[in-house]
Amino acid sequence: MNRNAIPTPKTEFARKRRSAATRIERDLWHQLRAKRVDGWKFRREAPIGPYVVDFVCFEARLVVEADGPLHQSSEQRKADQLRESWLEGAGFRVLRFAEGEVLSDLGRVLDRVRSALSEASPPPGRLRRPPSPSWGEGLPKRPLHKVLIIACGALAREINAIIEANGLSYIALTCLPAIWHNRPEKIAPAVRALIRENRERYRRILIGYAECGTQGQLDKVCAEEGVERIAGPHCYAFYSGTEAFLARGDADMDAFYLTDFIARQFDSFVIEPLGLDRHPELRDAYFGNYRRLVYLAQSEDPELDTKARDAAKQLGLAYEKRVTGYGDLRAFLTKSAPAEPTATTRAVPAE
Length: 351
Fold this sequence. Notes:
By secondary structure, the chain is α/β, with parallel strands linked by helices. It has 3 domains: 9-119, VSR Endonuclease (Endonuclease, Chain A); 142-236 and 329-334, Response regulator (Rossmann fold), CATH 3.40.50; 248-323, no CATH class. It is built from 15 helices and 11 strands. The chain has a 4-stranded mixed sheet with strand order 1-2-3-4, sandwiched between helices. Strands 6-5-7-8 form a 4-stranded parallel sheet, with helices on both faces. Helix 14 links the parallel strand 10 (292-297) and strand 11. It is globular and about 60 Å long. Mean pLDDT is 82; it is low at 1-7, 123-145 and 341-351.
């Protein structure tokens, strides 16, 4: 690190926040610092994209937020939700703790942090050291022979929900940036790199991407690397059920789709990349051939329903909602159990 580098406004802001830490932030940092939680390294007041987070373990892609009374206001809750969605889209998991939780039961807070860390995997190319018997360490606590899901960050929240609801503790998740849907040429090379860097650490690797505009390049990578991806041309199809989606055919040719993720991040993933925040007069040039905005809802969330309705109004489109749940994504994950090693198969630890 160049200590003499001129600080950016964001790093200056982070430094000021460190010096003005609240009591709950100080208490939590005392427990997280110096690799005190199972050897994982945390940073405090760390810049990530447009945000500065309270605490982050970059190895585990885990953000921990300590919320004071300010976070109880409705405006701040909306801001927190937007922030959390952005971070999940960038591949981070977010744990948020209220002031009362930290002050009254810090042990339980740390148990939840440990649980989240135990489900994480180190980033590509950086393996954690093996357990040291001389330090009193035994076998890794995390299950051996895990399945790795390499997925789009836009699916992170849904995949984690399916893992938790179905007890799929053998699955590890790593995500690529959701915004790459605007640059699909980046997806296939990055997926290939992740497969090769993780192949010896997992018994099975699956790809949580549909075709996603890669023009056959992602399928080529999957075939050459011997891995499977979820079937379908895009997430709208597998959320709806690919067969049912394709069967609608021309009936949906005039539809512009939203998912839960895009509803949360509509400005960041639709309006701003198209420049409509600066040039709203271009709206009809982009959306003039659409007649409906179809919200494919993974969850029943009145706030997201309102966001989707507002998006339809902003684009001048009729509004339609279809509750899809997780569609084919749930089946894709629940059938992912790794085969048991045979007598001739060498078991490779996940760490």
